[in-house]
Amino acid sequence: MPLNLACKPAVLCTFLCLTVSLLSVVKAEDPYRFFDWNVTYGFIYPLGVRQQGILINGQFPGPDIHSVTNDNLIINVYNSLDEPFLLSWNGIQQRRNSYEDGVFGTTCPIPPGKNFTYILQVKDQIGSFYYFPSLGFHKAAGGFGGIRILSRPRIPVPFDDPAGDYTILIGDWYMSNHTKLKAILDSGRKLPFPDGILINGRGRGGYSLTVEQGKTYRLRISNVGLQNSLNFRIQNHKMKLVEVEGTHTLQTTYSSLDVHVGQSYSVLFTADQPGQDYYIVVTSRFTAPVVLNTTGILHYSNSAGPVSGPFPGGPTTQIDWSLNQARSIRTNLTASGPRPNPQGSYHYGMINTTRTIIVANSAGQVNGKQRYGVNSVSFIAPDTPMKLADYFKIQGVFKENSISDRPYGGGLYLDTSVLTLPYRAFVEIVFQNNEDIVQSWHLDGYSFFVVGMDGGQWTTASRNQYNLRDGVSRCTIQVYPKAWTAIYIPLDNVGMWNLRTEFWARQYLGQQFYLRVYTDSTSLRDEYPIPKNALLCGRASGRHTRPL
């Protein structure tokens, strides 16, 4: 969409300078797409009760970002809130450029009444992702939207173009203001159970999708909620999975799909039923005895009547059902990804791992308040983003390896947890979940190969059941209760990268840390320099970046 910055000449001047300067670090032939966003508060009524939401250009949810592999996205964000604000880009890898990641460990918040221009490149990526506000508990007020990255025209896609391509944002939702929820957490208490589920910002019966009989459509489904795994289904229709977070998958057909918090899936479905209306259903998983649910409407253009009767049931507490479905999601080895070569041409299973990291989540009390942690460390944000402290060599902001690479069984304690790993290492990470809830983990800056998951405790013998051939490559993965999940990651992206739970109250209260992928090299081939327009805060305030 074109920029309209006539009312902000200073912003426009800075913006144009940034655009020109960007040519020094990205290929000039890659297209540019420009976005101008104003972030405001506004009243919304998703569950029938008025509450304060976060809007982008007056929209809830925010506008979709449509792009093509290697596009440069220039996104000018003006913060009209009364508090600092940041957007992060779930699944966008920010190749060599963690400064733009939009989490506090890498990026200073946008002050109220100010703007910041994100300069992103969707380098060597395709697929379905989303953006969201990363500070505080803003995510509970909105500010999220879909991201789609299409393949370049000369790259084959393993299915025909659909008749329509739609973003479906699902998630659990509170009717309370995000400031009230944050205050509950700050006081050391747990949040109550969510009040409902939204489909594209609407409650029960509020969302509808019109289709033509006989045609096939693509749905890009993302769980942008705060804690719960959700099951998605369409009455009397089958869904064919075709893509997961940037990877074309084996085209397996499902009657319903578990979408864990933070995850994104693309499915195809054909409007092959008699002409009438059908339920779109989303229900919570693993929350019994209370099960949240909501419905939308799939409306045939030749519909003879509305939906009637109860909506179709789905799985509720069945972990084995979900685990088996997860194991069935595999990479289509012969399909092209963002490049013309087949996705299976990278043989991850033939590479020796250089290090094993075991990540164990835990809950407990610190100083009489509820906290959550990883390997006994509950993360606390410093006064300066760690990436800026690293760049400017500011002492005392964080310590390298302030978190162990495996659990040692001690009680929770507070620290700014950073684990340094060498560039180009090939690492095995095991997520061990000894709690009674489903965990969902996300790693910024990377896609990783899911090689195994099972119940019980992981041991070295668990490697015997690894999928070393066609495990799906993605950026967010679930870990079932009293179970483990293992991934392989080639550390080919220098930077400071957030590894976090997507259970947002837990993330806010410490269940996260940062991977510092480091090299001594100063080459642009390994990492871009700090952006010329980087906001500087904390102990980095007043330090110059580079001359314009």
Ranges with pLDDT <50 over ≥5 residues? 1-27
Number of helices: 5
Number of strands: 33
Sheet bearing the most strands, described?
A: 7 strands, mixed
The Rg value, from CA coordinates, equals: 22 Å
Percent of residues in β-strands? 35-45%
Q: Assembly state here?
A: single chain
Distance between the termini: 27 Å
Please identify the structural class as seen in this structure.
mainly beta
Taken from the alpha-carbon principal axes, the silhouette is globular
Task: Please bin the fraction of helical residues.
Answer: under 10%
Rounded mean pLDDT is 94
InterPro entries: Cu-oxidase-like_N, Cu-oxidase_2nd, Cu-oxidase_C, Cu-oxidase_fam, Cupredoxin, CuRO_1_AAO-like, CuRO_3_AO-like
GO molecular function: copper ion binding; oxidoreductase activity
Domain Plastocyanin-like: 39-152, 165-303, 383-521
Organism: Populus alba x Populus x berolinensis
Q: How would you describe the overall organization of this protein?
A:
- Belongs to the multicopper oxidase family.
- Keywords: Glycoprotein, Signal.
- Residues 1-28 form the signal peptide.
- Residues 39-152, 165-303, 383-521 form the Plastocyanin-like domain.
- The chain has 548 residues and is mainly β.
- β23, α4 (386-392) and β24 (413-415) form a beta-alpha-beta unit.
- The chain has helices spanning 9-21, 178-186, 319-328, 386-392, 504-508; strands at 32-44, 51-56, 65-68, 72-79, 87-90, 115-121, 127-133, 145-150, 164-173, 196-199, 208-211, 216-223, 230-234, 239-244, 247-248, 253-254, 256-259, 264-270, 277-284, 293-300, 355-366, 369-374, 377-379, 413-415, 418-422, 426-433, 439-443, 448-455, 473-474, 476-479, 483-490, 495-501, 512-518.
- Strands 9, 10, 12, 14, 15, 16 and 18 form a 7-stranded mixed β-sheet that branches. A 6-stranded mixed β-sheet has the order 22-21-26-31-28-29, with no helix packed on it.
- The chain is built from 5 helices and 33 strands.
- 8% of the residues lie in helices and 37% in strands.
